[in-house]
Amino acid sequence: MNRSIISLKNVSKLYHTKIDEIFAVKDINLNIEKGEFISLVGPSGCGKSTILSLISGLFPPTKGKIYIDGQEVTGPTRKIGYMLQQDYLLNWRTVEENILLGLEIQKRLTTKNRNQALHLLEEMGLTSYKDSHPNQLSGGMRQRVALVRTLATNPDILLLDEPFSALDYQTRLKLEDLVVETIHKHEKTAILVTHDISEAIAMSDRIVLLGKNPGHIKKVFNVPDPIRNSLPLKARNVPEFQNYFHLIWSEIEDDE
């Protein structure tokens, strides 16, 4: 069996307030294999985004350990790319300059890496916009640029924190297909945080359902092959899809 690319071992995160101590997540144990697409779902306040921040090394767990490719996480690593709800594109930079930003920060802006980033932009259908500025683009186009910027540094793992939630429904569906195709093509491992159960089912290999007070893993669902082997838009038409949706929905309702 392959070694997990991501492992969380008895991970807890305790926040201190002026009057109390609150566990955001407690005793999280999770292994993710290379190439898997995992979604974290659950009610508000169950620690979904906290888990992403812990995996990324933005802050340490209060208890437990996190490993990336067998190495303990002690801070941010180049192995991880992070994509958020907001695109955070810099309006004074062109699209091309925005997608190269991570490479510049990491001092890895070589001719080869620049050409690879431009090739990713071409895959997203945005080559003709490389000299445009972000305020000239639609929301969906901006998120595609943000995805290219994230992929340009060639991370092994993508952390996706509700990257489609600010977009209209039609644009979301198109981007879901594009993101899944791109991640599979480039053999990335991905973790998606979403409140949208349909999105989680359509995009994922496994769904991790979190409960709250404190955040904990309540149940893990393996997405059936007929859904998992379809692109997200077509996956929604697979006969098992609605039954699977109601199964997860009922579990979340029990925790509200």
TrEMBL record:
Keywords: ATP-binding, Nucleotide-binding, Transport. CDD domains: ABC_NrtD_SsuB_transporters. It comes from the Bacteria. The keyword Transmembrane helix does not apply. One of its GO terms (molecular function) is ATP binding. Residues 6-237 form the ABC transporter domain. Signal peptide: none annotated. Pfam families: ABC_tran. This is Spermidine/putrescine ABC transporter ATP-binding protein.
